[in-house]
Design a protein that fits this description.
about 290 residues; Arc Repressor Mutant, subunit A; 2 domains; 10 helices; 10 strands
């Protein structure tokens, strides 16, 4: 469903399907970007961030970026841009008064994020997943009630802040450094490595190039990545590849052997074994279930 809806309070909601590649250069308000099928690659400076249906990206106000649809299937995009006043009202009522949301007392360095949030890839899950899916369902069917739409957007911010807390502050707390600012800086570099894996999962990735991209030594990358994400970089990469395989099995007719090559595996038998271990079914049975 295609629409660009600007509400009376200047919040903007976009939905559209892309079948071909496109580029767009813009200066964004604070916004959250999703895809419901396919994948989009965003360029922010020298960084490349690729989002799929299981992830989302935030863009801070003033960020200059370009985006391109790169997918074997049509890309269904969905984005929300929040007006400054709406966002500030939310921060005043939730972030500043209810310290349980971001645990401000527990994480005093969270003040850095009052006006700016980490532009990185976040997991699209939990209450945010249901919130956005319900909102899109109603908008696709012509919902015009702006009071209800803004309630959805308010809850979207609540649920985003919870994920932000999990992905930034809680992961930073796992790192074995005494200095809090060091924890945040190391996590920022680890997020660069995470983004690199999300974007280049179908390529042959060397540990040295991953560490160089994250501005960490190989030893520090291996040690701190597992502390933050409870997985080694290779285990994290395999998880991404298996998730992409699920998307392709569900949404395309590509043969399994071709999917194996598309997601970066070398051996079909190894892929089938890993897929069965992870999802308790074979790739063919998973496809037949749809």
């Amino acid at each position: 469903m295609e629409y660009l809806k600007t509400l009376r309070n200047n919040n903007v909601i976009y939905s559209g399907t892309r079948n071909t590649k496109y580029n767009q250069q813009t200066i964004s308000d604070f916004s959250i970007r999703f895809v419901f099928s396919g994948n989009e690659k965003y360029s922010i400076g020298k960084r490349q961030l690729s989002i799929h249906s299981d992830s989302f990206l935030i863009l801070n106000k003033g960020t200059q970026y370009s985006s391109v649809a790169e997918s074997a299937i049509p890309v269904q995009s969905f984005g929300i841009s929040f007006d400054d006043k709406f966002l500030q009202d939310f921060k005043n009522s939730w972030q500043l008064k209810d310290d349980t949301l971001l645990n401000i007392n527990k994480y005093p360095y969270s003040g850095r994020y009052e006006n700016e949030f980490d532009e990185t890839i976040y997991p699209f899950k939990g209450d945010l997943f249901f919130n956005i899916n319900h909102l899109k369902y109603h908008l696709d069917r012509g919902l015009q009630d702006e009071l209800l739409i803004n309630e959805y957007l308010h809850h979207c911010l609540i649920n985003y802040f919870k994920i932000f807390n999990e992905e930034i502050f809680q992961k930073a707390q796992r790192l074995n450094f005494l200095n809090r600012s060091t924890k945040i800086e190391i996590l920022r570099r680890l997020n660069l490595a995470k983004e690199y894996l999300y974007t280049n999962y179908n390529n042959n990735i060397h540990l040295e190039e991953l560490a160089e991209y994250a501005c960490l030594s190989v030893t520090h990358l291996l040690r701190t990545f597992k502390q933050a994400f409870h997985a080694t970089p290779h285990q994290f990469l395999v998880q991404i590849r298996l998730q992409r395989a699920m998307d392709l099995l569900k949404n395309t007719d590509y043969p399994v052997n071709e999917i194996v090559n598309m997601i970066g595996f070398d051996c079909p038998s190894s892929f089938i074994r890993l897929f069965r271990d992870r999802f308790k079914t074979t790739p063919l049975k998973y496809r037949q279930s749809f």
